[in-house]
Amino acid sequence: MIQTGIIPQHEDTRISLVRHASVHNPSNIFYGRLPGFSISKRGQIEAACTARALKDLTIDEIISSPLLRCRQTAAEILKYHHLKLRQSSLITEVLTTFQGQSADVVDLRNGDVYSGVDSKYEQPEDILLRVQKFLFRIRRTFPEKHVVAVTHGDIILFMMLWASHLSTTPHNKKKFTTLGILKEYPAVSSITTFSYSTSTKDERPSIAYFNPAIHMSC
Questions:
Q1: Closest of 88, 96, 89 to residue 124, by C-alpha
Q2: What are residue 28's phi and psi, to 5 degrees?
Q3: Is 119 left (phi over 0), alpha (psi -120 to 50) or beta?
Q4: 23 three-state secondary structure
Q5: pLDDT at 144 (0 to 100)
Q6: pLDDT reported for residue 68
Q7: pLDDT in tens, 32-59
Q8: Taking the chain, what is the end-to-end CA distance rounded to the nearest angstrom?
Q9: How are strands ordered across the β-sheet holding 61-64?
Q10: Is 177 helix (H, G, I), strand (E, B) or coil?
Q11: CA distance 86 to 118
Q12: Residue 20 and residue 39 in contact, taking contact as beta carbons nearer than 8 Å
C-alpha cells in the first residue's frame, strides 16, 4: 500500500519523481515527445505549489526529462535550491505511434498506447527498464540522499506497479485506480517518492505519494 500525503524525510535513499505540471494544449493533441509544449498558466500555479511543498527539504540533485514542460516545472523547484538542473533521457516521455494524434483517440483506449502497436515503439517493460536504470544510477551516486526528478505520468506509473509487485502491463495501467494501491493516476505536479534502505539492485522500494492539490493548500 502506498503512503499518501507525505514526502519522506528519513535517512534512506529517496528519489522523488515529480510529474510535470499541466500543459498548454488548446488543440487537444496527444503531444508525446513533440517539442514546444509548455506548461499552461494553470500549470505555472501547480508547479509553484509543488516547489513550495519541496522548498524546506534538503535536496541533493534535481534532474529533468529533456522536454520543455518538465524543465519548466523543475525551474520552479530550483527557485528554492541552489542547484544546477541536470537532464536525463532515461526519464523522457514514452515513444509512441499516437504522438501528434488527437488526445481523444488515446482516451478511447483508456490511455493504452501500447497494445497492438509496431515493435519499434516502447512497451511498458521498455519503460520500466530505463527508469530502473536511472534510479539505480541515482542510488549509487547519492546514497542516503534525496534526489528530485521531473518526468512523465507513465514513467511514474509503471515504476509504482513494479514496486507494488504488480505486472507492468497495459491492462494494469487501464485499471490502475482499481488495484488498491492508489486512488488516482499520478496527478500533474504530484510527488511520488521511492525510498530504498539497501544497495541491492532489485530492491522494491517503499512508496509515498503527495499531491499538492489535495495534501496542501495552494
A1: 96
A2: 55, 50
A3: alpha
A4: strand
A5: 96
A6: 98
A7: 999 999 999 999 999 999 999 999 999 9
A8: 27
A9: 3-4, 206-210, 191-196, 13-19, 146-151, 61-64, 86-87
A10: helix
A11: 32
A12: yes
The residue whose grid cell reads 516521455 is 93
Pairing label, strands 146-151, 13-19: parallel
Cα gap 13→139, rounded to integer Å: 7
Helix (H) or strand (E) holding 45: helix 41-54
| Residue indicated by cell numbers 520500466 | 128
Round to whole Å and give the CA distance between 28 and 21: 16
* Per-residue cell: 202: 532489485
Set of cell numbers at residue 72: 519548466
Among 189, 195, 192, 185, residue whose Cα is nearest residue 212: 189
Q: What is the pLDDT of residues 89-99, one digit of tens each?
A: 999 999 999 99
Residue identified by cell 505549489 is 49
DSSP string for 97-166? TTTTSBHHHHHHTTT--STT--TTS--HHHHHHHHHHHHHHHHHHSTT-EEEEEE-HHHHHHHHHHHTT-
Tell me the pLDDT of the chain (218 aa) as tens digits: 799 999 999 889 999 999 999 999 999 999 999 999 999 999 999 999 999 999 999 999 999 999 999 999 999 999 999 999 999 999 999 999 999 999 999 999 999 999 999 999 999 999 999 999 999 999 999 999 999 999 999 999 999 999 999 999 999 999 999 999 999 999 999 999 999 999 999 999 999 999 999 998 77
